[in-house]
Design a protein that fits this description.
With about 325 residues, the chain is of the alpha+beta class. The protein is about 50% helix and about 10% strand. It is built from twelve helices and five strands.
Length: about 325
């Protein structure tokens, strides 16, 4: 029955705002889930939530209660919109409050984006909840790249994976992000994010799935580690042409293909291996010839594993040095 869900939501709102006794920690997603799961599933309850929040924020003389109420309003605006029937009143409420409260102005923007891009499938992720509780309306997410670098990018509740990829491509100066994908590394799994999914929805889906998997393992199963990392890598290679995008080559293509070469996945003669090892040396050390002496000790990092035993370490070193000296003035990027 919808009225029972409405009562549960109201109690959740009161508990979150500190106006009702509560045993659940506000620092988790327990209360935000209680408030937003039903409206995401039942359209009729979305107006109910907005009405409840407007009621609780009207003439509220409790400073902490009001602050927490606005946190909920901010989170709701990023998850689902109200109906067109109520939209005029919600906009009017936010417009009046925006004159004295910057967060109300941000709620206006978030609501407009949700109306434009569609509603979420899951309640806010813990990262979103922690952000607004820390009074941060901008969320910066670290993204790791195959060349062992990383950068922070701004994401919000309405950021889809495709938008995220485009932002990364623009920052890195890539000519195209075709074939690129975001990957989430969580527990012992690395999973590609579908480009049409909201980023935080996908991460939330993964964490919920992991929780259920561990619960299925029995009472003694260890609690899953729900921390995660985000990687941006090449996923599809069918249209990749080396040399057309130097940045893509040096950040992604080289570093993603190198492990495959070293594991023996590519056809490679010993002669080819020598030339490729010399190029790898230049990528790693540039023109520095002082590291020639270390070649025998890092041979498995330069030569395919199935070819290492074809020559002695000293023979490999001699031939790799010879190939290196034939390069002339090649740069690291050329290599």
């Amino acid at each position: 029955m919808l009225f029972r869900s409405a009562v549960q939501i109201y109690l959740g709102v009161m508990k979150y705002m500190g106006d009702y006794p509560n045993k659940k920690a506000r620092a988790t997603t327990d209360l935000t889930d209680l408030i937003m799961e039903h409206p995401l599933a039942q359209e009729a309850l979305r107006d109910e939530v907005y009405c409840q929040l407007i009621k609780q924020l009207s003439e509220n003389r409790g400073r902490i209660s009001e602050e927490r109420g606005w946190e909920l309003f901010w989170l709701c605006c990023g998850c689902f919109a109200c109906s067109n029937t109520l939209l005029k009143e919600v906009k009017a409420f936010l417009r009046i409050k925006a004159a004295t409260l910057s967060l109300a102005s941000d709620c206006q923007n978030r609501l407009a984006k949700t109306i434009r891009n569609g509603q979420r499938k899951y309640p806010p992720h813990l990262v979103e909840v922690e952000a607004i509780q820390s009074k941060k309306i901008s969320i910066y997410h670290k993204v790791y790249f195959p060349d062992d670098t990383d950068q922070a990018f701004e994401v919000d509740s309405g950021t889809r994976a495709k938008d995220f990829c485009q932002a990364i491509g623009a920052r890195l100066g890539l000519k195209s992000v075709e074939g690129m994908s975001l990957f989430v590394n969580i527990a012992d799994k690395v999973i590609s994010v579908p480009e049409g999914d909201f980023f935080f929805d996908f991460v939330r889906h993964l964490t919920e799935w992991l929780k259920k998997t561990k619960q299925g393992g029995g009472r003694d199963a260890a609690a899953p580690n729900l921390t995660y990392q985000v990687f941006f890598m090449k996923k599809l290679w069918s249209t990749t042409v080396v040399g057309t995008d130097v940045n893509a080559d040096s950040i992604f293509h080289y570093h993603q293909e190198l492990p495959k070469l070293l594991r023996g996945y590519h056809k490679c003669t010993a002669e080819d291996a020598v030339k490729l090892a010399a190029l790898q040396y230049r990528v790693r050390f540039g023109d520095n010839k002082k590291e020639f002496g270390s070649i025998p000790t890092i041979l498995k990092e330069l030569v395919p594993h199935d070819l290492v035993h074809e020559m002695s370490a000293d023979e490999w070193k001699k031939k790799i040095v010879g190939a290196f000296n034939k390069h002339g003035s090649k740069s690291k990027v050329d290599a």
